[in-house]
Design goal:
globular
């Protein structure tokens, strides 16, 4: 089964189509951490080069953590440009998911360097906006620049959560990375939320430790462009 999944390599077909149509800077974008209970939300952005073929880039979910780590430097050096946008757990609480995703995407694209002509976004929800986005369902499995962004974002966030794990040993953040799992749920029930939990998220609705009221959203432009 794993060998079959490895055979489904993403391609540059969408990027080539857009390059041929005159879009010079085509950026793949993907998010990591939307479903987590703790830690940051991270959006990755990656620009694939035209003159170098990718090697070994897959949807990050099809790779083990060790495989993603080994491929990180190679993918980062292969990209013409790449960046991540990070939104903290406090900002997630203050903004809510939709605005937090928009902010993370804006930070990623602002830090990228070149201005995007077109953004390729994994999924069906356009949280980038501006009329320059093409959403691609399962884009991280079919589009090279999105797959690269997915791996870069995932590895970056995993490293952040492993660094946090030593401060909260009972929560095993080195293993679950802040996502829901039985051990995470048991730790919450026993100890209450840590300082990096998103206390306004729905998983805290019935918790006696919530105590967070969402703040007014930050003033933001409606789109990135």
């Amino acid at each position: 089964m794993r060998a079959a999944l490895r055979g489904r390599a993403p391609s540059l077909s969408v990027e080539r189509e857009l390059w041929s149509a005159g879009d010079t800077v085509v950026v793949g974008v993907d998010e990591v951490g939307r479903g987590a209970w703790a830690g940051p939300l991270v959006v990755g952005a990656a620009v694939a080069p035209r003159d170098r073929r990718p090697y070994g880039i897959r949807d990050s979910k099809l790779l083990t953590e060790a495989e993603r780590e080994r491929s990180f430097d190679r993918i980062a050096s292969w990209c013409e440009a790449w960046s991540i946008g990070v939104v903290t757990h406090e900002e997630c609480d203050a903004l809510g998911m939709s605005a937090a995703l928009r902010l993370a995407a804006r930070r990623a694209l602002d830090d990228l360097g070149p201005t995007p002509d077109r953004v390729l976004l994994d999924g069906s929800w356009d949280f980038v906006g501006g009329g320059r986005t093409r959403t691609i369902v399962k884009g991280d499995a079919t589009c090279v620049s999105i797959a690269a962004a997915s791996i870069l974002a995932k590895v970056s966030r995993d490293r952040m959560m492993r660094a946090e794990a030593e401060h909260f040993p009972g929560f095993e953040f080195h293993a679950n990375k802040g996502y829901p799992c039985p051990r995470h749920r048991m730790a919450l029930a026993a100890h209450g939320p840590t300082t990096i939990h998103r206390r306004s998220w729905s998983f805290m609705d019935s918790s006696p430790w919530s105590g967070v009221h969402r703040l007014p959203a930050f003033d933001e432009p409606p789109t990135l462009f």
